[in-house]
Design goal:
By secondary structure, this protein is of the alpha/beta class. The protein contains 12 helices and 13 strands. A 4-stranded parallel sheet has the order 2-1-3-4, with helices on both faces. The longest helix has 13 residues.
Length: 327
């Protein structure tokens, strides 16, 4: 019997799903580890580096019987080729398991419905790697140069026409247009969840993106000030085919930009009526950035200026009074 451990994931883990498929095809019984059960071998997957202590404890407990992988443990450790090529086991996760990881205030029925939508979706990579070498990103270390991975047909979940693509740089893929045409022809609803490289947007790509159905907003990022002209040009090109209210831009802060540059990027994006979403680099402990992120991501900017944002004003008052501001 093969045991699996999803160390810290909130959504179905693709690696564990492929491992499950591989061993089930070989006639093995596969399940998530349960107390009191004996397993021939155990596979654990970790996403976040903050879970390394948990992974170390698992190794101490199971010794040679466990293999630990994932971005949170070892960026250079890959699935063996014979496992990576497997179709994910879409029966591995139950609705109840996925529902536990869905945050937010909602009824139990709504939570279960969202969980059902997730486990009914296809998920995988059609390409891996990236042409960029951004210093804040783990992709160059983990995935390396851009290369082809699985075919769309091997990712589709027969239970729905929704596909979640994890491609690290979909718009840099030389087969991008062919894949978008296949998505359109198959009638798929797609979520390119790692976002698009807006700097590589062309008329043909924008047109093709407008001809497919998107599960949520079309999203991309503006991380560095030096990318401004390319980002703005890409936004203008995409905007000719997809309305800006259907777009969203991630903004990295706390890496190598000043607060003034962060605010500039925010207002520059709002000129195009695009909703930015602030991402704080490695959760940098900067009180102003934390409040800025909440002001932007909570859309409080529609009600007040940042300097008039209540929680930020309160934090400043506490600082002047010598009190430690709440995070």
């Amino acid at each position: 019997m093969i045991g699996l451990i999803d160390v810290d994931g909130k959504l179905p883990n693709l690696a564990l799903m492929k491992i499950s498929s591989f061993y089930k095809a070989a006639g093995e019984q596969v399940e998530f580890v349960r107390p009191g059960r004996q397993y021939e071998h155990i596979y654990a997957a970790s996403i976040f580096s903050r879970s390394k202590d948990i992974c170390t404890a698992l190794q101490d407990k199971y010794g040679a019987r466990i293999t630990v992988g994932g971005c949170g443990w070892d960026l250079k450790k890959d699935l063996p080729a014979e496992i990576n090529c497997c179709r994910p086991d879409y029966d591995l996760y139950t609705v109840e398991m996925v529902a536990k990881g869905i945050k937010g205030i909602m009824t139990r029925e709504t939570r279960l419905k969202k969980a059902q939508e997730i486990i009914d979706s296809g998920t995988g990579f059609t390409s891996r790697g990236c042409i960029r070498n951004c210093k804040f990103c783990v992709v160059p270390i983990k995935e390396g140069p851009l290369r082809q991975d699985q075919e769309l047909a091997d990712i589709i979940n027969p239970r729905s026409n929704v596909v979640i693509l994890h491609d690290n740089n979909f718009t840099a893929d030389p087969h991008c247009l062919d894949k978008l045409q296949e998505i359109r022809d198959r009638g798929l609803i797609v979520d390119i969840n790692q976002g698009l490289d807006i700097r590589l947007m062309t008329e043909d790509k924008a047109r093709a993106l407008s001809e497919i159905r998107h599960l949520r907003s079309v999203h991309y990022a503006w991380d560095l000030m030096e990318s401004e002209s390319q980002v703005i040009q890409g936004i203008k090109t995409l905007g000719r085919y997809i309305k800006t209210y259907r777009q969203m831009c991630f903004m990295l802060v706390g890496f190598n930009t000043s607060f003034e540059e962060d605010m500039y990027r925010f207002w520059r994006l709002r000129e195009f009526k695009i909703d930015p979403y602030v991402m704080i680099y490695n959760q940098v402990p900067d009180t102003r950035l934390q409040h800025f992120a909440r002001w932007v991501n909570g859309r409080f900017y529609k009600a007040c200026k940042f300097e008039d944002y209540g929680p930020w004003m309160l934090a400043q008052e506490k600082k002047k009074a010598g009190k430690k501001p709440a995070k």
